Amino acid sequence: ARVLQLARRLSRGAARGLGPEEEEDEEEEGCPKHREPLELFCQEDAAALCAICRESRAHRAHSVLPLPEAARRYKEQIQARLQTLKEEREKLLELREAEMGRIRELW
Predict the structure, then answer these.
(1) Angle between helix 20-27 and 2-15 (nearest 10)
(2) CA torsion, points 49, 51, 55, 61, in degrees to nearest 10?
(3) Per-residue pLDDT tens for 29-81?
(4) Where are the domains of the chain?
(5) What is the distance between the alpha carbons of residues 34 and 54, in angstroms, rounded to a whole number?
(6) What fold does the segment set 33-106 form as a domain?
């Protein structure tokens, strides 16, 4: 959910021609602890981080990506899964229609 929220926020900013820094200023203050811009994404905790949080014990050993890169990766994963679900849905609808046809024949 956090990833989707971050991706949506970045998408809205890109659509308006705003950079990540401008988008954060417009919608929030940044890191609730340090009031620094949220520029990084901790993959283990699925959380946006500021540079200060990144160096804390809680995240120091974790894999971290720049926030736009993480949003792009998750967006690609979501789109791939959505495509798979659409294909499965189409197959199920075809199967349903075939079964409905068989039922009509039997009546």
Answers:
(1) 110
(2) 50
(3) 688 888 889 899 999 988 899 988 888 888 888 989 999 999 999 999 999 99
(4) 33-106
(5) 11
(6) Double Stranded RNA Binding Domain (3.30.160)
